[in-house]
Amino acid sequence: MSLIGIVFIFSAGTYWSSIHxxxxxxxxxxxxxxxxxxxxxxxxxxxxxxxxxxxTWITLYVLSLILLVLVLIPGIGIVRNGSRSWIGLGxxxxxPAELVKITTLMYxxxxxxxxxxxxxxxxxxxxxxxxLPCALIMLQPDFGSVFILVVSAFILLxxxxxxxxxxxxxIVLGVVGLIVLIASAPYRLKRIEAFINPWEDPLGSGFQxxxxxLAIGPAGILGHGFQESRQKFxxxxxxxxxxxxxxxxxxxxxxxxCFVLALFGIFIYAGCGLALQSIKSSDFYVISxxxxxxxxxxxxxxGVVIGLIPVTGVTLPFIxxxxxxxxxIWFVVAIVICFSNQSEVYKE
Amino acid sequence: MKWISTISKKRLKLIIFGFVLFGLSVxxxxxYVQVIQHxxxxxxxKENWDREIPFASERGEIVDxxxxxxxxxxxxPTLYFMPAQNDNIEEAANQIASVLNLDAKKLYxxxxxRDYLVKLAPEAKNITYEQAVQIQGLKIDGLYxxxxxxxxxxxxxxxxxxxxxxxxxTQGLAGIEYQYNKLLTSKDAAIRLYTDAQGNSLPHVDDxxxxxxxxxxxxxxxxxxxxxxxxRELSQAMKKYNADQALAIAMDVNTGEILALSSYPTYDxxxxxxTDQSIYNRNLPVWMTYEPGxxxxxxxxxxxxxxxxxxxxxxxxYDKGYTIVEDSRLRCWKREGHxxxxxxxxxxxxxxxxxxEMGQRVGATKLLQYIKDxxxxxxxxxxxxxEASGILFSEESFGPVEHATTSFGQGIAVxxxxxxxxxxxxxxxxxxxxxxxxxxxxxxESGNTILESKPELKRNVISEETxxxxxxxxxxxxxxxxxxxxxxxxxxIGGKTxxxxxxxxxxxxxxxxxxxxxxFAPADNPQVVVYVAIDNPKSSVxxxxxxxxxxxxxxxxxxxxxxNLEVDRKGQLEKQYxxxxxxxxxxxxxxxxxxxxxxxxxxxxxxxxxxxGKKVTSQLPEAENIIQQDGTIHLYLEEN
Lengths: 348, 640
What we know:
Helix content of chain A: 55-70%
Largest interface: A-B, 54 and 45 residues
Radius of gyration of chain A: 20 Å
Oligomer: heterodimer
Keywords (chain B): Membrane, Transmembrane, Transmembrane helix
Number of strands of chain B: 26
Shape of chain A: globular
Shape of chain B: elongated
CATH architecture of the largest domain in chain B: 3-Layer(aba) Sandwich
Strand content of chain A: under 5%
Subcellular location (chain B): Membrane
CATH superfamily of the largest domain in chain B: DD-peptidase/beta-lactamase superfamily
Domain Penicillin-binding protein dimerisation (chain B): 57-202
Strand content of chain B: 15-25%
Helix content of chain B: 25-40%
Number of domains of chain B: 3
Structural class of chain B: alpha+beta
Largest sheet of chain B: 7 strands, mixed
CATH topology of the largest domain in chain B: Beta-lactamase
Structural class of chain A: mainly alpha
Distance between the termini of chain B: 146 Å
Largest sheet of chain A: 3 strands, antiparallel
Number of helices of chain A: 12
Distance between the termini of chain A: 14 Å
Organism (chain B): Ureibacillus galli
Family (chain B): Belongs to the transpeptidase family.
Number of helices of chain B: 20
Strand order of the largest sheet of chain A: 1-2-3
Number of strands of chain A: 3
């Protein structure tokens, strides 16, 4: 239970930052409301054994796939930033891709946990489960979500003793796949170019990367101080969202950035700790997969912000603004706790 | 129920290890960006954030030796435009174009860029106040008017071919403006507007003033007053003789400081676009290379005297009008010849065969060495842009005929500044000084010196004793010989005329001459040397003696009080009377005499009396001045 406490402290910290770093009034009020809702959902979900059952997840997996199909229908799906990724529900908007990442990983975890020792580890249906939602998300298109899903799923498969040899193949396949993806959409190629030399076209394709560096660089070790960010004034696109980490770095500097980094480290460490303590292999897979997903998403976002990875539209878990993503993250944590509770019960 | 395999656990730990590695690389990367690249990125970020409305700092001034400003700056309202703040740039361009009478399409192209800030120059630089008000009234989004300077030349064309000019961004493009551009250039001050990316100003950040730096001041050795006299005389000569070009140099004989430097025709540096390149790119006194003619005889004379091969007063020479050197007949300018004359008269008459004789007595190798020692054949090092080196005969091709023609200044080509440098040395005691024109460059605000030039002695060419003889000979040229029209009472001007046929495409051009005169004063202790050359004057008599000599005389007379040349008649040679000269006498002293006494003396002059009284208390002109016989003397009387 103490580990859960740490996760809570972490969330409290991120809540604090999520309020303040957004700057403008409506954002943080909305976000606080979302967070309140998320915590209610969290408490609710964490105590519901329904979510530990396999059947629930099969249903949710199918449901999320249906949502993915729905989002593609012009009347229902809302287009933002060139992607048809949102479904409007009154004042709320939902991003089915966020949901499908979890359901896919969950379903996959359950399947993997049922693989008998005598059975072959590598099974076609595992891939089908992954590829189906990926294909649907690509139609939106939302490269970032696909990327996270694929990598998280591969982390899961890796943990589930998929042979290393296969991974070499995956990597080769992945590289080829990336090239195909990049070639298929010119904006991706531009982003790669911008990554290699963002200063070449600081007002065009390199804009985001350059602006992010301009936020981080001048901040130095201690940062400009709280609320002293310059880049949040429309220089950085989506400072409350994809690039919130630049603003954090700008305001509280290298040390603050390391602090946030450490919190994520603790989250991953604690999460994996829970996984290792679990008894059932399904618990182990679920917790590892979800923690891996959150961790990878955080790594991807941070990597983009500091210019280690080409610009990809990925939010920073817990911290970035966005109702769906916040809900999902807390939902994920709730599920993790759900499963670890179950493991505790077993132990007793 | 299935238990977790240890392989799975190991693999999870591997994944954790992967995350740790990534975390480490993030920290390293952050350290690189935030600490190592900190300064560089800060600079870039400031540029990114700031909307600077430049307040131009002044480009350095150019001043004369007394600190008088020759080139300065004038405020010029200038328009700046931020494309991001305007939704309808085409409309804005049209509006501005209609007020300023510009081509709307070109303006649109300039305004419709992805820059943060566009300076609308030169089109919308230095607009009038009314235009600025009118444009402000249009309330065009993203248009600002800032302060800029344009170069201002209070003396207009004066010295322009030396000064050069600046482009629309006040970058030096020619002349001294170009040569000293780096030092003259200022760093602009600016108001930094803190804005968001769309240019809206931010409430909680104060606008900042960025200090600029004024450009350094360049101080010339030029004396503006001397320059004005020189330019006035040259412009009059240009008109009077309808000449192609004219040039002049005035230099301090004992330091090499150039006091005036002039080329005609001139141009207005603020309108350089309308001027032909060949005018503003050629600073004639250092660029022009031509046959010097008789002024060069000073070198031959100096060499002959230094080698002690001629006694000016006692050696005799017979000029029959020509000399034959290796079957070539070299003529004197006077067809019938000067007959029997002393070598002093050879100098006075500028007699070519006489100088050939002097040159021959010195010897070819030695003469050529003297010419080189006097600084010919290489640039003087004056540091004036575009200096030429002139053309001498090489030692191998220096045959008897070349030797002979060189002795009287033909067959070689030199620059005016080389002649000035050489003659200064010939009369100042033999010291060859490097001519220079920039004396100092200093910080305009603190006054600290950045660069300084001091007189630089290159070498001693002839002895003081020889130099004294040269001075005396040249003074007698002005008093008795071809330079008589440069004679000024009490100033003891010495000098030498020159008339050279122009060489075009390697051949002498009939009827076109460059006439020149090089003069210095005072002859007993030279202070200043003045050289004037007029290119292709249209006149019935085209001689240096009739055209250039009087100009130099006038220049020296007018600048004498400005450079503290004292009028001193002691030891001066009297001007020799020639038929046609006005008959002159010295003004007698009449102060202290009564009117009755004066009347008894029966002077030929008109006498005008002013005031009542018995005794003369003052007179004009004063005693010992030169007066024509029919001139008027004014006498002022007072009671008691």
